[in-house]
Write a structure and sequence with these properties.
Strand order of the largest sheet: 3-4-5-12-7-10
Largest sheet: 6 strands, antiparallel
Strand content: 25-35%
CATH class of the largest domain: Mainly Beta
Mean pLDDT: 82
Helix content: 25-40%
Radius of gyration: 24 Å
Number of strands: 12
Distance between the termini: 51 Å
Number of domains: 2
Structural class: alpha+beta
Length: 213
Amino acid sequence: MTNIPKNKQDNTYVESPADTNHDRHDGSDPVTKAVCEKVRELRKKQRWTLQQLADASGVSRSMLSQIERGQANPTLGVAYRIAQAFGLQLGHLVDAAMSDSQIEVIRGEDPAFIYKSDETMQVRTLSPLNKEKDVEFYELRLEPGTQMRSASHFEGTTEFLTVLKGQGTIHSGDDNSVLKKGDSAHYRADVPHMIENSGKTQLYAFLVVTYRA
């Protein structure tokens, strides 16, 4: 359903209940997601508040907020008004958004990328979840005494661990090595292996897993 003005004197558009129901999305549409993120980027670049963009576009502040947060899918008319506010044609807004979307960002607060989290450790994947890959990248936070054990991976798999804070011990087969802040290690992961927090404070590290192609 097309958005309608509040009244005859007010040209600011607000969403109707039907638009609210049908225009919400979960961010799975890459075009919509890219456009929503681009709107926020353009507004920040202009140093506009949401209210200033609402005044320039005629789209309600509440709708703009929902669009920027990925909670509403802008209709064609709304997207056109937003593009006009930035001095863009509608097609240019979409093209700009899609060209930017070649950079895939993993937000620090996105819970979808938390691989494991409990009172002893948090493991967050920093690799795209939707792509086949032969390299995986993780952020590790292990509390003192925590052991992160792994069975043998595929033949030829290796791991790289870099310690940013704390102290850790790497166990790979029959070998082991202690790492402190700033240290890195490369070791076989096609044998039983373990990352252990052998220090007295939290171990904060980055882990890269590479699989032989």
